[in-house]
Design a protein that fits this description.
Number of strands: 6
Helix content: 25-40%
Structural class: alpha+beta
Strand content: 25-35%
Largest sheet: 4 strands, mixed
Length: about 110
């Protein structure tokens, strides 16, 4: 399990690949990508957080998912700072032996 709160962008393909790298027990990877919508007159958005508290809250959510479903790996990235329409905000990736667990855990973590 890896949780990151960061200003820099991320590579979806690299993050997804890392979930199964060197593993033969992964049968499914489910993921969610959140992006800034450019609706209306939105020029940009700024996201702030409380360092330490945000990471702990995200880690606790992932731990709950790991307790409920059989997971081989989880990656959560949440960006902060100034973001423009079309930029990526959130990535949740979940690896599991079976797709049902991967889908359910991914939805739980994102919600």
């Amino acid at each position: 399990m890896t949780v990151s709160v960061q200003t820099e962008g991320f590579d979806i393909a690299a993050e997804t690949s890392a979930l199964s790298a060197g593993r033969s027990d992964v049968g499914a990877i489910a993921s969610f990508l959140g992006m800034v919508r450019g609706e209306g007159e939105l020029a940009a958005m700024s996201l702030e957080h409380y360092p330490g508290m945000t990471e702990k809250a995200l880690t606790d959510i992932v731990a709950q998912a790991e307790a409920r479903w059989s997971l081989q790996g989880v990656r959560v990235i949440h960006r902060i700072g100034r973001l423009l329409p079309g930029e990526r905000i959130v990535f949740v990736g979940v690896a599991s032996r079976h797709r049902g667990d991967a889908f359910a855990a991914c939805e739980f973590i994102m919600d």
